[in-house]
Design goal:
Strand 4, helix 7 and strand 5 form a beta-alpha-beta unit. The chain has 8 helices and 5 strands. It has 167 residues and is of the alpha/beta class. The longest helix has 15 residues. The termini are far apart. It has one domain: Rossmann fold. The protein is globular and about 40 Å long. A 5-stranded parallel sheet has the order 3-2-1-4-5. It binds zinc ion. The site of zinc ion has 8 residues, from helix 5 and helix 8.
Length: 167
């Protein structure tokens, strides 16, 4: 029941004071009152969270409510690099979101960055894995169990292989 929240809409989703909050309120409610959980992992996402105390507070608050699905940082970092290589465009600054999807198997992303969405679609093109994007009230219907895979995972085991190789 997980969704990746792009940092560019984090405040809009979680702060009821944000002007754009109504647009993202279904995501907020789905996490607060429904099945939704925040999925995250990896160095880049953590760095973005760390930029604001408020964001860290939000994550901790949801962790305490068991509304966070934290996945393997190392695996996300490895997959982030792979996603960046696939796109090969330095203006694409969200390969870590694709990394989170690859590692967790979650298909839902909340983002208002159209360029990022297009690149993420490109990354998964032809793989049979179709990410779904929440972009506003019009995409409210993706917040259902329908787009939730059964095999949500915390780790792909890539991190282990990396350590073995190092030895
Ligand atoms: Zn791992």
């Amino acid at each position: 029941m997980c969704i990746v929240i792009d940092m560019d809409v984090f405040a809009q989703v979680f702060s009821e004071k944000s002007r754009d909050h109504p647009k993202y309120e279904p995501v907020f409610k789905w996490i607060n009152e429904g099945d939704g959980k925040i999925v995250y992992g990896g160095e880049t996402y953590w760095k973005q969270l760390k930029q604001s105390e408020r964001k860290i507070d939000v994550i901790n608050e949801y962790k305490n409510k068991d509304k966070v699905f934290k996945i393997c940082d190392n695996c996300v970092d490895i997959k982030e690099k792979e996603a960046a290589r696939l796109i090969g465009d330095s203006t694409f600054n969200d390969p870590h979101l694709a990394g989170i999807l690859m590692v967790s198997n979650c298909r839902l992303v909340c983002s208002r960055d159209e360029g990022a969405r297009e690149n993420i679609k490109k990354i998964f093109k032809g793989t049979g894995f179709n990410p779904r994007f929440y972009t506003g009230l019009g995409s409210k219907n993706i917040l259902t169990r329908r787009y939730i895979p059964n095999n949500i995972q915390k780790c792909m085991g890539l991190c282990l292989r990396k350590t073995i190789r190092k030895k």
